[in-house]
Amino acid sequence: MVVHQWVRKNKLDLFGILEPKVLASNLETIHRNMDNQEWEYSSNIQAVNPCRILVGWNPNKLLVDNVRMGDFNATLRPEDRYGGDRRWLGHHEEFRSSINHAGLLQPSYTGVRLTWHNGQQGESIILRKLDWVFVNPHLLDKWQHAHTHFATRDHSDHSAMTFTLAGEDRKRGGHFKFLNLWVDRDNFMDIIRNNWNQNLQGSPMMRLSANLYRVKKVFKKWHSQNTSQISKRVEEAKRNWDEAQIQLDRNPSSMDKRDDERRCAGIYNRLSKDEEAFFKQKSRIQWLELGDRNTAFFHKSLATLSTTKPVC
């Protein structure tokens, strides 16, 4: 009954129960009590009785097969452990090594971090991060808002996990596109080097996919902070430069006014070049080499290209 209420409350299409300790003779009763007649169930009852794993799913909904979630009974890092034996021995690295070898990533999460409690108190308390959700880079590329929530404990010594593929604010059809203007940044190669994990394990294709995902994530964040809505940024920079010129004209002897005018001029010129590069790429025009800042021309060109898709 508790599981049934939890499934209905969170509107789940897939659930898993770890350590249910249900006897084979009681499994059919459990299925009937779930009140989901169309659902299908699977367990490891053939290997161990009572079963230790019970999974239920709605076959009428699309399910992805590249999510790994559950009680792995292992920690990734020393900080995932509190209380008990705090030593970090060689065999503790095996879990992290296997995850890296499989090319799996952790989606963002909310809720509690240490998901298991030994039920003791005082000096005897032991907390561990034993419950995990891992996905492959392809899933995060398709479902960029996928996230996990680890609830506070209720009837179990483990936290319940809820994995959601997309939030309500998910934008549809917004594919990532590389902007050529990023290459001109002084720190471009540093960004690539810092986010290209050459020690990642797994197949060559899996390593490539994971590294591309990391780099893409950094550039998308940088774009949102620096080059998104580029025309509005140019307009704002021009207003700031105009104001700085007026202030300098009123007080030309002020060193602060001189520096501010030069700073605003530099920002405007850089953003103007970014705007030109942005519309040059977006309009698919590659022949302009003289550097004219004719953005009105680009806008008119874009209007004639009905098939042009958003750059990002």
From TrEMBL:
SUPFAM superfamilies: DNase I-like (SSF56219). Gene3D superfamilies: Endonuclease/exonuclease/phosphatase. It comes from the Eukaryota. InterPro entries: Endo/exonu/phosph_ase_sf. This is Endonuclease/exonuclease/phosphatase domain-containing protein. It comes from Salix udensis.
